[in-house]
Design a protein that fits this description.
The complex is a heterodimer. Helices cover about 70% and strands about 5% of the residues of chain A. Chain A is mainly alpha-helical. In chain A, helix 4 (about 100-120) runs antiparallel to helix 10 and helix 11 (about 275-285) packs parallel to helix 14. The model of chain A is unreliable at about 445-460 (pLDDT under 50). In chain B, helix 12 runs antiparallel to helix 16 (about 390-415). Chain B is an all-alpha fold. Chain B has a domain at about 255-445. A two-stranded antiparallel ribbon of chain B has the order 1-2. The longest helix of chain B has about 30 residues, at about 305-335. The two termini of chain B are about 20 Å apart. The model of chain B is unreliable at about 470-480 (pLDDT under 50). Classes of the chains: A mainly alpha, B mainly alpha. Chains A and B meet through strand 1, helix 6, helix 7 and helix 18 of A and helix 4, helix 6, helix 8, helix 9 and helix 11 of B.
């Protein structure tokens, strides 16, 4: 009798566990809730903590093992999900010098945020909902990072999007939170087209979604296996996909509003992990990007532009969370620019260090006033504002103009809204109005029967 | 009919007869038994019989089971892979409706009409005989029109439905007569048969709600009860008819299907886009249903197995998910009145469990990983791009708009300050059971899609074979 491959290969088992752990937590706390029997707060936090802690340990051990092997990629084939003709969706995980460090810090941060949120959200009505979404996020993050094929990566990417939107709208009774969540989801959905289309193009070009057929070699020195024209097309689509999740201009409007969510989720999503999902995808497909220099330069332009935009706009923000989120946007822009330039390890280090620092800052932000008072007490007085600012070097007239631009958030939203959103909505609303009039005409002027319907939902 | 086909045919007969028996039992024993119990038993028997019929087809040689008089290539009873797929699907939809329908809406006459409608749908999906199809079309449309008309405030919708469907039945009747007189699947057929094909295609366009004949779709969802709207639209009888009557022409180029496919692509994108600006949940559901059902026809008109498999998967996944979300919406309506989505309604605190189910069904519509619709979207988009680039672009646009519309609907219904100042409405056990079962199917097939996709591939292969082999018997039901 032969043992299943996962049992005979401990490294594969460790890689798989990094994915299975958050899935187990998700099922363990999600299913009882769906069946009307939610777990207690203590059981919920313990299950999630155990999942992320064991996932983190598994990732650490994996990191040590693959480091001893020179960071050569270890691919785990979990089988084929389905296949029709030449189109097949396979489940492959890959542990290499990019994915495993990413899993280490993502599961580690999730474990810490879980510990923080257990206290922070104590007796909050949506306590269980938060942890279900955190487990969903952890599942999506690990799925995306460990993906060995574009199909699996896309699945993880979608998990991130929906959990992010639902956590922004966590406080559903607040109008701003709900509007912000819908805005974030809409931006994600539009930009997801890039990743989905890239997935289809990769399938058509290589006959499979496996990364092994897209590029070969050890990260970050892989070689692209598709023709330059295909590489350029795929790269452009991936860049488009990254713009939404990483809140780059002109898709950055959702990020400042995303702070409507609870602090722990803000820390982990917009300070640490979700905002860098785009960077991860581009780093994963770095060889394709290398084969398409035009896409790289476009990325540099967008990243640098976003960094400048966020730095200017962030300087006039009047609340701590907004300042932090614009700082995050600045760093995300710089990271994408670094990837566009062709650097590989530097952006990875930048991502990890920025994620750790920013999530700490956001987690501490609710206590900022307390910290400030303690500092004042220690200094024996108010520390006062800093006199130094780069803006003071500019001529007053330019500084005033820049100040106006910053207050209007770079006119980014009015530009996007005026050029795309409002015309599209006006067109659709007009079409809908015409539809209703036509239906009313056909129905003898009474098609809009809803107004007269009783509130019992009618009869069968 | 051979001995090996007998069990499958008996199962189909039971599937059709059970709702009829249930309707008769309701007429005579409504005081002795709860109408829901009778209806659930009848539909439950149909469901079991449908599963047996599907199992018989899968375990058999792959040849269709036939019975009865044959005319113009069609059999009175015809059970192939498509029927084996659709019978259990429709039975599940009917069962969910029976379980979730609010008590005050479950009066005996209404339940009898529901059961009669179920029997007609099962019969339609089990035949390929042109005349039987025409008769069943007419009967089901008349039954639906009567039901809508008897709904409070539904006269306008009944008028819209009646006007459009009378056109559809007229086209279908004349078209079928011309098809029978001059079958285009025989070599040497003339203009008469071609005209018949185009008239049937026009009938399909109207009954399918394709642009520009789509006005009855939102009117139905607005004016009729959600049960009626779901029972009428989810089985997609028009798509089935197109596959039975428009496939296998001797010239090998089903032009009607090409036109239908392009109209369906336009409808899919247009419906999903309009869903984004709807003012109430019923409008949202109507537009989504119109869009998703059009996507099925667009995919089934393709020439690539991947695309056909995707279309069949969308047929089942969108149907189950829309049924689920429609029934959740109905459950919310029955508790707190009509649901506008022009502004935030704040229903989360009132019905958190229903909010969770609404969200999960919504995710199952928008192609969330782990659900059957993820597999379906993947297949249909890959296949569409293989077939025609513009088809893939339309399908991608459809999924984007549909996703935004669903989440906008969810946030508008459940988000915002609490507006219903009343005790929390708990979800009923029968509702929870029905919703959980639907979700189990959607997520189960999404997480383990291999066997299901393989069975879809067999059905797709038989549909493609019917188009390609003009001289050989066509498995989809049209024999030259």
């Amino acid at each position: 009798m032969t043992l299943p491959p996962l049992l005979t290969d401990p490294l594969s088992a460790l890689v798989v566990w990094q994915l299975v752990a958050p899935v187990t937590a998700l099922a363990s706390i999600g299913l009882p809730s769906l069946l009307g029997r939610p777990l207690s707060e203590r059981a919920t936090t313990r299950i999630v903590a155990a999942a992320f802690a064991t996932g983190f340990v598994a990732a650490l051990v994996t990191l040590v093992v693959i480091a001893n092997r020179g960071f050569a990629a270890h691919v785990v084939h979990l089988g084929r999900l389905f296949a029709v003709g030449h189109h097949a969706a396979t489940i492959e995980l890959v542990a290499d010098g990019l994915s495993v460090p990413y899993v280490c810090f993502s599961t580690g941060l999730c474990a810490l945020v879980n510990a923080f949120a257990g206290k922070y959200l104590h007796r909050e009505p949506g306590f269980t909902r938060f942890f279900i979404l955190l487990a969903l996020f952890g599942t999506g993050m690990n799925l995306m990072v460990l993906a060995g094929s574009i199909d699996v990566l896309f699945a993880g990417w979608e998990f991130l999007g929906i959990s992010s939107a639902l956590l922004i709208g966590f406080f559903h009774e607040r109008r701003n939170a709900v509007d912000a969540a819908l805005r974030a989801f809409t931006t994600y959905r539009i930009c997801d087209v890039g990743l989905f289309a890239a997935s289809v193009v990769i399938h058509q070009a290589t006959g499979s979604g496996d990364f092994e057929r897209l590029f070969t070699g050890t990260w970050p020195h892989a070689a692209c296996l598709v023709p330059p024209a295909t590489a350029l097309f795929v790269s452009m689509l991936l860049v488009f996909a990254a713009l939404g999740k990483s809140a780059q201009v002109p898709f950055s409007g959702w990020l400042p509003r995303a702070m409507e969510g609870p602090t722990p989720s803000s820390a982990i999503f917009y300070g640490a992990l979700s905002i860098h999902a785009g960077a991860y995808v581009l780093l994963r497909c770095e060889s394709v990007l290398d084969a398409a220099p035009a896409a790289g330069w476009l990325l540099v332009a967008i990243g640098a532009g976003t960094a400048l935009h966020a730095a200017v706009v962030g300087s006039v923000q009047t609340d701590l969370k907004s300042m932090l989120v614009y700082a995050s946007m600045t760093q995300a822009g710089l990271i994408l620019a670094e990837i566009g330039v062709g650097w590989r390890v530097i952006p990875l280090v930048h991502v990890i260090s920025h994620a750790i620092l920013r999530s700490l800052q956001i987690l501490r932000s609710p206590s900022a006033m307390h910290d400030r008072h303690e500092l004042a007490a220690a200094l024996g007085g108010h520390p006062g504002p800093s006199d130094w600012s780069l803006l003071r070097l500019l001529p007053p007239r330019v500084a005033r103009g820049l100040y106006h631009v910053a207050l209007e958030r770079g006119f980014e939203e009015s530009f996007v809204s005026g050029l795309f959103v409002r015309p599209l909505l006006a067109l659709l609303t007009s079409a809908d109005r015409l539809e209703r009039r036509w239906a009313a005409l056909l129905g003898g002027g009474s098609a809009d029967a809803r107004a007269r319907r009783s509130s019992d939902g009618g009869v069968v | 009919m051979s001995d090996t086909q007998t069990p499958g045919l008996i199962a189909v007969a039971v599937c059709i007869a059970a709702p009829l028996v249930g309707a008769v039992a309701l007429r005579f024993a409504e005081r002795l038994f709860n109408p829901r119990l009778i209806a659930a038993t009848a539909v439950g028997v149909s469901l079991m019989a449908a599963i047996v019929a599907a199992a018989c087809w899968h375990c058999g040689s792959g040849r269709p089971a036939t019975f009865g008089h044959q005319l113009a290539g069609g059999d009175v009873v015809f059970v192939d892979g498509l029927t084996a797929l659709l019978l259990p699907y429709v039975a599940v939809v009917d069962m969910a409706i029976v379980l979730v329908a609010p008590r005050r809406a479950f009066a005996s006459p209404a339940v009898r009409r529901l059961l009669l409608g179920a029997a007609i749908t099962f019969a339609t999906l089990s035949t390929s005989h042109p005349i039987v199809l025409v008769v069943l079309w007419a009967v089901s449309i008349l039954s639906t029109w009567t039901t809508i008309r008897s709904t409070m405030g539904g006269r306008g919708a009944a008028r819209v439905y009646g006007l459009t469907m009378s056109m559809a039945v007229a086209c279908m009747t004349i078209g079928t007569a011309l098809l029978v007189a001059d079958p285009p699947w025989l070599v040497g057929s003339g203009m008469t048969g071609a005209a018949g094909g185009w008239l049937v295609a026009l009938a399909v366009m109207i009954r399918k709600g394709l642009v520009p004949f789509h006005s009855w779709y939102p009117a139905l969802f607005s004016g009729a009860s959600l049960a009626t709207a779901l029972v009428v639209t989810m089985p997609q009888v028009a798509t089935y008819t197109a596959l039975r009557l428009l496939v296998g022409h001797a010239d090998g180029v089903p032009h009607e299907l090409v036109v239908l496919a392009n109209a369906a692509l336009l409808t899919a994108a247009y419906g999903a886009a309009l869903a984004v600006v709807q003012r109430d949940v019923r409008g949202l559901l109507g537009m989504l249903a119109m869009s998703q059902s059009a996507m099925v026809l667009a995919g089934l008109s393709g020439t690539v197995p991947t695309e056909l498999c995707g279309a069949l998967a969308v047929w089942v996944s969108s149907g189950l998910a829309l049924t689920g979300i429609g029934l959740v919406a109905w459950a919310i309506e029955s508790r707190g009145g009509m649901i506008s989505i022009e502004s935030l309604q704040g229903r989360f605190a009132d019905a958190p469990a229903l909010a969770a189910f609404f969200l999960l069904f919504g995710l199952a519509i928008l192609g969330f990983p782990g659900t059957l619709s993820f597999v379906a979207d993947d297949l249909i988009i890959s296949g569409s791009l293989d077939d025609h680039l513009h088809a893939g672009v339309f399908v991608i646009l459809t999924t984007v708009f549909a996703g935004i519309a669903v989440m906008r609907g969810w946030f508008r219904v459940f988000g915002g300050p609490v507006t219903v100042d009343a005790p929390r409405h708990a979800i009923l056990p029968r509702e929870r059971f029905a919703f959980t079962a639907l979700l189990a199917i959607l997520f189960g097939l999404g997480l383990w899609p291999g066997p299901f996709v393989q069975s879809l591939e067999n059905v797709a292969a038989s549909l493609l074979a019917a188009r390609q082999h003009h001289d050989a018997p066509a498995p989809s039901g049209v024999h030259p």
